[in-house]
Specification:
mainly alpha, five-stranded mixed β-sheet, about 65% helix, about 5% strand, globular
Length: about 500
């Protein structure tokens, strides 16, 4: 290894170690916890207990099919050492943050042939407000991003060295990404489309595509077969149309604005300009699509022309493939999926890669302008990451916050006899703080399909009969929600004894 190469790897390693320290410093009381976080952690605990991958946070304790298993499996593997998956997730995500920083340094270096550009990409990832927050949350996205970046690199190795083994490894990595998030199908489609566009003849396109698909399929088919055998459903999704809501679109714009402008005071000022961020997205997206089509179609119709730079090309193609996958899921399979930060994070990573690629292109023509853009990006990003780190370091967030672990309602539930069932609107934190699976409430609308759910009256009668018999309690958290939800809670608690009413939480029991 030459001295410049050694210097580059040392720089990337130093930035990676800084990232590991940053996550550990920002989360002294643990990672941010959400409903899905608890599902992954409970699934890992279930694997550790020898029961398999099951919904341990629910009293039904059925097989998990909604969440792919790889993240929980890694937490369970860490748990063999004696570290509970709740704590193990913090160390795993910290290491993944460091690994992703290192990988992006290598990607930037290979993509631009500039060590400075590689270091800039790694540093921008290290101090990016949105991506730091993603890695500070107990979710599968850091692992998914890690597998995606390795797949990008190995795919680039394949085009450079023309050796089939690199394509087989790419297929296996994409398979693991699918076992981490179902959105891995977008990564699969990206690589497959690239093989068709960038190979030089139909024989190579079909042969290499078949090799790639064959390397991926065992992972996807194996998981689907397991689900079909244990739950009679391949992915716990059903085909049903539900349009995008205005609230969902606004959520996406909000998270996009945080990514583009991490300085909160400035972001709020910019948001007041009507449709500013939507226009930015459309303009950048249109320009990127034109660039992508020009590069891809030129190579497809003129096979002997120069192959586009692979890492930038697949990063751009992946943005559109991933976005199409997510929107399709929202429209046809899962109405509960929203444009949350965790959902948009893979797009943000590709956006950073492309930003460095185009800035490196600009560097050769307008060095001063390119350097100014680097400085602005680094300054804004560093400011946003500093504020976020200080905020996270103050205490846990989500279900890890003091509102939950100091909750008097949770203390009430922990003191219940073990054979008393708990019906609740917050099954995840109830499991986390009472160590028992909870029963979900009967509901009028299925959040996944967005359609009316049958059997509400029967579910209500069962719940109230269980509570009145003393076999169960009804625990409702944060009852001061919208009027429709409040009416539902009033219906559920009608005729029951209000045994606890504090901190906007209520618990109903049988009459004393």
């Amino acid at each position: 290894m030459t001295k410049p190469q050694t210097a580059a790897f040392l720089t990337f390693s130093l930035l990676a170690l800084s990232g590991i320290f940053l996550i550990l410093y920002a989360t002294p009381q643990g990672l941010i916890l959400s409903d899905d976080s608890i599902a992954y952690i409970a699934g890992a605990r279930s694997i550790l207990s020898g029961q398999g991958y099951r919904e341990a946070w629910l009293a039904s304790n059925g097989p998990v099919t909604h969440f792919p298993p790889f993240f929980s499996a890694l937490l369970a593997l860490i748990g063999i050492s004696g570290l509970d998956p709740l704590r193990g997730a913090r160390f795993l995500n910290a290491v993944l943050f460091g690994a992703n920083i290192f990988l992006l340094g290598v990607i930037g270096w290979r993509m631009t042939k500039s060590q400075i550009a590689g270091a800039a990409l790694a540093f921008l990832f290290l101090v990016n407000y949105s991506l730091v927050r993603v890695h500070a949350t107990a979710m599968s996205e850091p692992l998914y991003i890690f597998l995606t970046l390795i797949a990008f690199l190995v795919f680039d190795f394949y085009f450079q060295r023309k050796q089939k083994r690199w394509l087989i490894v790419t297929g296996a990595l994409v398979g693991l990404a699918y076992l981490t998030r179902y959105a891995g199908l977008a990564l699969f489609a990206t690589c497959l489309a690239s093989l068709f566009l960038l190979r030089e003849n139909w024989r190579d396109r079909l042969a290499r595509s078949a090799l790639f698909v064959g390397s991926f399929l065992p992972f996807a088919l194996g998981w689907s077969l397991r689900n079909q055998l244990v739950a009679h459903n391949a992915t716990n999704r059903t085909l049903s149309y539900h349009p995008l809501t205005l609230e969902n679109i606004q959520t996406g714009i909000y998270n996009l604005s945080l990514f583009l402008m991490p300085v909160e005071a400035w972001r709020r000022a910019l948001v007041k300009i009507p449709n500013l961020f939507a226009v930015i997205v459309w303009l950048v997206g249109a320009g990127l699509l034109i660039w992508l089509l020009q590069k891809g179609l030129t190579k497809f119709f003129k096979p002997h022309t120069k192959t586009p730079e692979i890492l930038s090309f697949i990063s751009a193609l992946y943005i559109f493939g991933y976005l199409a996958s997510i929107v399709s899921s929202m429209l046809l399979f899962d109405a509960s999926t929203k444009f949350q930060l965790r959902i948009l994070a893979p797009i943000f990573v590709s956006a950073l890669i492309l930003t460095i690629y185009f800035l490196a292109q600009l560097q050769s023509k307008q060095k001063l302008l390119s350097s100014l853009c680097y400085l602005i990006l680094i300054a804004f990003s560093t400011y946003g990451a500093f504020n976020l780190t200080a905020q996270l370091h103050k205490g846990g967030q989500g279900y890890a916050s003091f509102q939950w672990y100091d909750s008097e309602a949770m203390k009430f539930l922990r003191n219940l006899p073990e054979d008393v069932r708990i019906y609740t609107n917050e099954a995840a934190p109830v499991y986390l703080y009472t160590q028992r699976g909870a029963y979900v409430l009967p509901d009028l609308v299925d959040p996944v399909t967005g359609q009316a759910r049958g059997g509400f009256e029967e579910g209500l009668a069962t719940l109230q009969a269980d509570v009145l018999s003393g076999k169960a309690v009804l625990a409702l958290f944060d009852i001061g929600k919208d009027e429709q939800t409040q009416r539902l809670y009033q219906t559920l608690g009608a005729g029951l004894y209000l045994a606890f009413d504090k901190q906007d939480d209520t618990i109903y029991t049988a009459y004393p």
